[in-house]
Predict the structure.
Amino acid sequence: MSAAPGLPDPVEPGIAPSPRDTAPTAGSVLVLPARVYREILAACLDGYPLGACGLLIGEVETSERAQVRDTHVATNEAASARVYTVAPRDMLRADREAEEAGLVLLGVWHSHTHTDAYPSPTDVAQAPDPDWHYVLVSLRDSEPVLRSYRIRDGHSEEEAVVLQ
């Protein structure tokens, strides 16, 4: 399977080793369909030079494994390259979409336009739900890099991302 023109192949993608040279530590797994992966990357690239954001919709399979089914691209109300704020109306729409489909909001994604795909102190401080998955896309290098974290009690732990 190949990606849309200009996007990394989802089978050998920009899911890269940690810039901190550590393997995922959370023990949890986020399963991400290739279609959703491509939609997230496209939205991040379309939003550049500002940060892009959106919500993950899916189902919790276990406390340590979640299956993403869809994404809802949101407006970054901060209109900034450094921070993001999901528009409240987009949060409400995504929550309704999830509920109508018998799914839940699993988390949020956003781009880092000039830094690694690693939670910033602001990301950690503003993480609203310890059960959520926080997907970050770095646009710093020539290829986007997507990584996911669990942020709990002020600490972020990388989790494995499995593309399907």
User: Anything to note?
Assistant: The chain has one domain: 29-163. Residues 29-163 form a domain with the Cytidine Deaminase; domain 2 fold (CATH 3.40.140.10). The longest strand covers residues 53-62.
